[in-house]
Amino acid sequence: MTQAQLSARISAIAESSTTQLMGLVQQLKAEGKQIISFNAGEPDFNAPEPILQATVKALQAGKTKYGAVPGEPSLREAIAKKVREENGIVAEAANVLIANGSKQILYMIFQALCNPGDEIIVLKPYWVTFPEGIKLAGGVPVFVDTIDHQPDVDAIAAAITRRTKAILVNTPNNPTGAVYSREALMAIGQLAVEKEIHVISDEAYEGLVYDEARHISMASLSPEIADWVITTQTFSKSYCMTGFRVGYLVAAAPVVKAINGMHSHLTGNVCTFAQYGALAALEMDPAIMQQMQQTFQRRLDLAYPLCTELFDCVRPAGAFYLFPDVSRWIGERFADDDALAAHLLKEAHVAVVPGSAFGAPNHLRLSFSTDDASIEKGFAQIKQALS
Ligand SMILES: Cc1ncc(COP(=O)(O)O)c(C=O)c1O
Q1: How far is CA 91 from CA 16, 83, 234, 286, in A?
Q2: Residue 42 Cα: closest atom of ligand 1
Q3: What's CA 112's distance to the chain center, in Å?
Q4: Residue 4 CA to ligand 1 centre (angstroms)
Q5: Does the C-beta of 295 come closer than 6 Å to ligand 1?
Q6: Ligand 1 atom showing the smallest separation from residue 236 Cα
Q7: CATH of domain 66-283
Q8: Whose CA is nearest to atom 16 of ligand 1?
Q9: Pocket probe mutation, ligand 1, options 122, 233, 237, max atoms within 8 Å of Cβ
């Protein structure tokens, strides 16, 4: 079949460039090529043993049926406790809704907030899914530049119109690794209260911060601000559970109720036994994940100087990405960041993601979610391919 009558809505959506690239890299590896994956968007560790054991136990105990749409009651309770204690967010189980990763959560938030033509402010560079998810909901992403990867609050204020429904904030940030300061978050929160608009706070990488940085949840700043915040977090990155597809939102009960209605038609509950793996993640010894965080700190310390030998790069404070400015390589030798990334894949056998995918041409995203030897080898091969 070569014909299709697709909607304008779906025709306007581009496939995620990061997942597309992942497919290409997998294909090259299957062909026997030794590719170093600086494109990875997930921890390279397996889910810790207590999570696996709890998941298997849940399977064997028959947790294989449809479950409660907003999530297993025990997991909602545990998440509410976690966000109260670790994030300073005032929440009960009724404020929590569990869905298939924060990708689905974000999709539902955009659908819940946007009437056709409503605007959501998105800071640049942005994670690839934000604009497409907003467009799928009939909304309009309004892009605002950052300064050295930190929010420009005056520019955000200037971008607010009577169609603005929300400001989307992502800290720690993908692709830049920036962790937003308390002052910047407070200023954005106050703006939201004043203008009576929401803040969507994507905290997918909350468990991965480095150096002196601390992750601050927007909804912890004040009760007035919390009223307007929809927080999304996930088990994917902080607990190495990307394939489990368990993420959640924390919001005012009416928002949870409205989104739950949609969730009941879209997917219903998240895979029941996977939720028991998530419960075990919250109950296990925190030292297990602290160890992973220390490993990522060491990798950052290794990768950052190697990166700055070749490119200009703001030091990231969270997630597991370096986002160098590669402008000085663009021009005569490489037409743009896509051409540079293609060259690195072909000649250096290193997969990186072009910055254009994140609305930031002349940049590359390099993930340090790989072992020390691959980090050293990858940068050595990049250096050689550029010489
Ligand atoms: C900023 C950000 N938010 C959300 C997600 C989605 O995570 P998940 O759907 O696995 O919870 C990702 C994944 O790469 C991300 O980078």
Answers
A1: 33, 7, 16, 21
A2: 14
A3: 20
A4: 30
A5: no
A6: 10
A7: 3.40.640.10
A8: 174
A9: 237
Tokens of 189: 């929160």
Asked whether 247 and 278 are in contact (CB, 8 A), the reply is: no
Q: State both tokens at 268.
A: 């219903």
Contact 364, 176 (CB under 8 A): no
Reduced to 3 states, what is the DSSP secondary structure of residue 331?
coil
Ligand 1 mean position, distance from CA 1 (Å): 34
Nearest to 165 by CA among 198, 116, 122, 131: 198
Please name which of 343, 346, 347 lies closest in space to residue 330, comparing C-alpha atoms: 343
CA distance 33 to 38: 15
Contact 94, 262 (CB under 8 A): no
- Hey, which bits of 64-196 come out as E strands? 96-99, 119-124, 140-147, 150-151, 164-170
Task: Tell me: pLDDT of 181 over 80.
Answer: yes
Report the CATH architecture of 8-46+287-386.
Alpha-Beta Complex (3.90)
Ligand 1 mean position, distance from CA 45 (Å): 17
Q: Report domain extents, the chain.
A: 8-46+287-386, 66-283
Name the residue among 320, 348, 273 with its Cα closest to residue 44: 320
Write out pLDDT tens, residues 326-347.
999 999 889 999 999 999 998 9
Q: What rounded mean pLDDT belongs to the chain?
A: 95
Q: Which residues pair with 150 in a beta bridge?
A: 147
For residue 85, give the DSSP letter: H
Dump pLDDT digits (tens) for 81-135. 999 999 999 999 999 999 999 999 999 999 999 999 999 999 999 999 999 999 9
Ligand 1 pocket residue status of 17, Cβ below 6 Å: no
Assigned token pair, 41: 């968007």
